[in-house]
From TrEMBL:
InterPro entries assigned: UCP028704_OpgC
Keywords: Membrane, Transmembrane, Transmembrane helix
Protein known as: OpgC protein
Family annotation (PANTHER family): BLL4819 PROTEIN
Pfam families the UniProt entry points to: OpgC_C
Superkingdom of origin: Bacteria
Presence of keyword Membrane: yes
Transmembrane region(s): 12-29, 49-67, 88-108, 128-154, 166-188, 200-217, 229-250, 270-292, 313-329, 335-358
Keyword Transmembrane helix attributed: yes
Ranges in a coiled coil: none
Length: 386
């Protein structure tokens, strides 16, 4: 086994934790910390980082066992995770609906029955409940887990292709991405007339690229530094910042080519948006910041961001519900500096506390080596003194 798979790389957890913190801040619209997340400095945001790292982690967690001659074991483990993700989403979205409707009752504010697509649940509860169980009905800010469920459910197919030829897997993924855009394929968001906010047929390409990067990393061939590639990536980040700060968003139909090739739509992951995210990841991965990198690795599980990223599912679900509470508090109080600080920092403290508890629980419940019997202990002592 190579160095990439002998130990847990806490840098992956660290950056996933950073992404989760930014997602939490972004899910409370109007708070002042929202202005500090990466979506304010370019044309992509933390969702792209999260999906890329999900693909990268999937390669390390499952593809290693797949290539070692245990494809059935790897596939079973994948679908165990899919089941956990599905249950986590259903429970979380049910609790979110309860929080929103509870706020409507407590504050006598019908606003909370209309936000984020909740009005469909009131107008057509039968279809909405079916849609909720089948992942087709998604309310705002609770639509990334369904994407991850679909992407992970398709992972065994990706692993089967990648085990034979990784480039072919990438080519197939890119082909699906292009065809889905040109043909207008997407998954419906029922009972509305729209589509999934995070369209899996488009976002699968970023997941696959992350998977490929993880597969190369586990094989001891990580994507290396190249000055030309680094210069192009920096140029892409500068261009993204200019577009963001200059509000230079191109309109649909402005060019005689398909929209996905020059716009920055998030739901369908337009090509320039994805390239900007990949440029950001490449620049950060090869920054000359060895002292920070070593501190993250040395701190390991003690780093707060690494702790949060290591328990990403539990933290994301908890953070999403805390964000609902934050939205309600911001509206009820009118917001402001003090409210923003309390809402965001108390929410992050709760999430870090949960991560600490989960680390402790894992340490307490971890299997321990069986104690030696007295004859075995005596024989071992005799061998050590011989």
């Amino acid at each position: 086994m190579n160095a990439a798979t002998r130990f847990r790389d806490h840098r992956i957890d660290f950056w996933r934790g950073v992404a989760l913190v930014m997602i939490f801040a972004d899910h409370i619209p109007g708070n002042m910390f929202e202005a500090l997340t990466i979506r304010n400095f370019g044309v992509s945001d933390s969702a792209e980082i999260f999906v890329f790292l999900s693909g990268f982690s999937a390669a390390l967690a499952y593809f290693t066992r797949y290539l070692s001659g245990e494809p059935v074991y790897a596939t079973v483990r994948v679908y165990q995770r899919v089941g956990k993700l599905y249950m986590a989403h259903v429970v979380t979205i049910a609790m979110a609906v309860a929080l929103f409707f509870g706020a409507a009752i407590w504050f006598s504010d019908a606003h909370w029955t209309r936000v984020h697509g909740l009005d469909y649940l009131i107008r057509d509860p039968v279809h909405a409940m079916v849609g909720m169980a089948t992942l087709a009905y998604q309310i705002g800010y609770f639509n990334i887990l369904p994407l991850y469920v679909v992407l992970l459910a398709a992972l065994p197919v990706l692993m089967a292709v990648a085990a034979r030829n990784l480039l072919f897997a990438l080519a197939g993924s890119f082909g699906l991405y292009v065809v889905a855009h040109l043909a207008g394929w997407s998954l419906p968001n029922l009972p509305s007339d729209g589509r999934w906010f995070f369209d899996p047929l488009s976002w699968q390409l970023l997941f696959t690229i992350g998977f490929a990067a993880g597969a190369l990393y586990r094989g001891g061939q990580p994507v290396g530094f190249h000055p030309v590639a680094y210069g192009l990536a920096l140029a892409a980040l500068v261009a993204g910042a200019v577009i963001k700060f200059g509000n230079l968003w191109p309109a649909d139909g402005a060019l005689p080519i398909p929209n996905f090739m020059y716009t920055f739509d998030k739901g369908s992951l337009a090509l320039p948006r994805m390239l900007h995210a990949l440029a950001l990841i490449y620049v950060v991965a090869h920054l000359p910041y060895r002292w920070i990198d070593e501190r993250v690795m040395r701190a390991g599980e003690r780093n707060p961001f690494s702790r949060i990223g290591r328990h990403s599912l539990a933290i994301f679900c908890t953070g999403s519900l805390l964000a609902v509470a934050g939205q309600v508090i911001e509206r009820a109080t009118g917001g402001g500096f003090a409210v923003d600080v309390v809402v965001v920092f108390v929410g992050l403290a709760i999430q870090l506390g949960l991560a600490l508890w989960l680390d402790l629980w894992k340490a307490i419940t971890a299997p321990r080596p069986a104690a030696r019997t007295e004859p075995e202990a005596l024989r071992a002592r005799a061998r050590s003194t011989a």
